[in-house]
Amino acid sequence: MKRLKVLTVFGTRPEAIKMAPLVNRLEQHNNIESIVCVTAQHREMLDMVLDLFNIAPDYDLNIMKHGQSISDITVAVLKGLEEILLKEQPHIVLVHGDTTTTFVASLAAFYQKIKVGHVEAGLRSGNIYSPYPEEMNRKLTSSLANIHFAPTKENYSNLLKEGVDGKNICITGNTVIDALLQVVKDNYVFHNKMLNDINYEDKKVIVMTCHRRENWGEPMVNIFKAVAEVVENNRDVEVIFPVHLNPHIRKLAQEILGDSCRIHLIEPMEYEEFANLLNKAYLILTDSGGIQEEAPSLGKPILVLRTETERPEAVKAGTLKVIGVSKKQIVEEVENLLTDEIIYRQMATASNPYGDGKASDRIIQELLNRIST
Fold first, then answer.
1. Does residue 185 belong to any structural domain of this protein?
2. Of 41, 1, 33, nearest in space to 16 by CA
3. Ranges for the UDP-N-acetylglucosamine 2-epimerase domain (predicted)?
């Protein structure tokens, strides 16, 4: 029997984090020929993850350009992958989640009549413009995929409702837990000295991320003003905010948050550093998707700075709460967790719905069982 030829395609930092443990396992398997293509929809942040997990791509489209639009990404990925697919003729293309790289790579594979496996399939917010363009990317990818690797039963149900044959859906858990368990360490020492100097035992450290496109403008102003008010009201609180590279976000963060000595605006962090920072946090404020899955494994309450989430199983489990982008609401919800030990403990000890760190092995076994060579 020929080895199964698997081409994995990803282009952003979040994709890379979640695909890295799967790529590592694919490359170790004797019955699989693993080929990796990165589009570099993100560049610097992607490269940090590749270095951490020792992944050397076979192909790098290197598409990132200053000020690129979604259309620019779409055209560059579609054209760049055509030649690679024609040359390699893999048995299956693996994509992840909901980026423009994910959707376009699936489309490129479809054009060559090559099977598509969708890792982290079935997430839905119910609003095609939030998150944008991710919600539509994941729906379109589902229409093109042959095998759907759904992290949870809820994701499985979402796909069934859209007409996907249940025989083509596998519940695997989320690969981000595989990645997280590889990098979080006791007594971790940060490269950034300031992070080592913070008293995580006596201070209530809030780690925040905020960058989603739908939060640009007034929502982000509300979020930053709410955080400033929380810090002003609570002397035992410190905030660590790795600020996205987008210049508009950085300017706004500096204007509203830059004058407080207990709000630390720092550069984006490598994944290992950031995962270990989450592990030391008291609570997490985020509009990110992936962190909603990671933090429950670390016993950290998450307040989601969005009006909806495509991860409702975490809401049901009690590990996270969606609090919107109203300044008043954000202040109230954060201060509830800072002052009410019962509410805090309920969220911190809720069961993680995203798996046991063995999703990659389940995906590989399904590929070997389902794809003929």
1. no
2. 41
3. 25-367
The H or E element that residue 140 is part of is helix 134-144
Percentage with pLDDT > 70 across the chain: 100
Q: Is residue 1 over pLDDT 80?
A: no
Secondary structure letter of residue 290 according to DSSP:
T
Q: What angle do CA 296, 347, 286 make, to 5 degrees?
A: 60
In degrees, rounded to 5, the angle at the alpha carbon of residue 272 between the alpha carbons of residues 337 and 124 is 60
Question: Cα–Cα distance between 32 and 287 in angstroms, integer?
Answer: 37
pLDDT at 44 over 90: no
Q: Which two tokens stand for residue 92?
A: 């299956």
Q: Within this chain, do residues 137 and 279 fall inside the same structural domain, yes or no? A: no
pLDDT per position as a tens digit, 282-340: 999 999 888 998 888 899 999 999 998 888 888 999 999 999 999 999 999 999 999 99
Instruction: Check which CATH number belongs to the domain holding 71 and give it.
Output: 3.40.50.2000
Domain count, the chain: 2
* Catalytically active residues, by annotation: 98, 120, 134, 211, 213, 244
pLDDT digits (tens, 9 = 90+) for 75-93: 999 999 999 999 999 999 9
Q: Is residue 186 part of a domain?
A: no
Q: What range defines the domain where residue 254 resides?
A: 193-349
Indicate if 266 and 319 belong to the same structural domain: yes
Do 258 and 145 fall within a single domain?
A: no
Q: What CA–CA distance (Å, rounded) separates 184 from 273?
A: 9
